[in-house]
Amino acid sequence: MRAAVVTSFGTPPSCQDFPTPVPGSPEEVVIDVVAAGLHPRVRSQATGSHYTSSDELPLVPGIDGVGRAPDGTLRYFVLPDTTLGAMAEQTLIDVRRSVVLPEGADPVLIAAAMNPAMSSWVALRRRISFQAGQSVLVLGATGNAGRLAVQIAKRLGAGQVIAAGRRADRLAALQDADLTVSLASGDQLGEVAGDVDVVIDYIWGQPTADAMRAIVTNRADSDRPLTWIEVGSIAGPTAAIPSAALRAARLQIVGSGQGSVPTRDILAELPALAEVITSGAFQIDARAVPLAEVQTAWKETDAEHRVVITP
Q1: Where are the domains of the chain?
Q2: Which fold has domain 2-100+281-310?
Q3: Are 137 and 162 in contact (CB under 8 A)?
Q4: Sheet of 198-201, strands arranged across
Q5: pLDDT tens, 200-225?
Q6: 55 within 8 A of 39, measured Cβ to Cβ
Q7: pLDDT single digits (tens) 23-54
Q8: Which fold has domain 116-255?
Q9: What's the mean pLDDT when you consider all of the chain?
Q10: Is 16 exposed, middle or buried (0-12, 13-18, 19+ CB in 10 A)?
Q11: Per-residue pLDDT averaged across 150-163, rounded?
């Protein structure tokens, strides 16, 4: 079969022949892949930089996708850490880690949206006790996952959603945000978002340290709980968190992702999320790219749309 194959970390995968998968247990089935999203998580998988990487090569990237099962059902699937990912004509799935998609589901939109949407959906529904009416700040709201996080927070009942990012043009396009603020505005972030209840953070690094300092400093009621959910780290893997921020406010920092949320909890959320995406509730910008062009598509690192590989 044909697949996107990584033979060297740091080098984009290329479309080449790869052994056809063979089930190794009763729970595994071979599925015909219809669409697989090129997510940041997939890029880190292909560079060997993700914290789950085993450094094993060659590998086929892709952590989730949509495929046609042997019984004819169209399924969204999530793969375990494996060297046989979703960016291939076929892959191996455990049907227990998949859901049958609703009637009328668009495979490309599902493949584009499920992974980035899960980051905030699971964080708010499974990682913390989020309450309707609470206010939410999304740090990094101009990326694919951040834009969806703004919409999801509203969908799940947020009383106010504040979007923060560096791209003014993308901030202006966020129709679901109640307020927008530039991350480059310094103290303005603290003035606008000083009293939020929840922060969904896709940035980390120095921008997070600066934002945390600004928000805690401008908090009107230091006794009001503030939950900071670390989801991504596009600005850097470490952040110099000021110790005073932890002492001066009821600040709780938690992570949300693979490991901190049990797999069973993530899988339990898949049907509801797939239903919402299929209903057209979210604005999703996806572009389908044939598997043969994966090497070129890999270089689109600043695209506003989510690339979806279609074998």
Answers
A1: 2-100+281-310, 116-255
A2: Quinone Oxidoreductase; Chain A, domain 1 (3.90.180)
A3: yes
A4: 179-182, 160-165, 135-139, 198-201, 226-230, 251-255
A5: 999 999 999 999 999 999 999 988 99
A6: no
A7: 988 889 999 999 999 998 898 888 765 555 66
A8: Rossmann fold (3.40.50)
A9: 91
A10: exposed
A11: 97
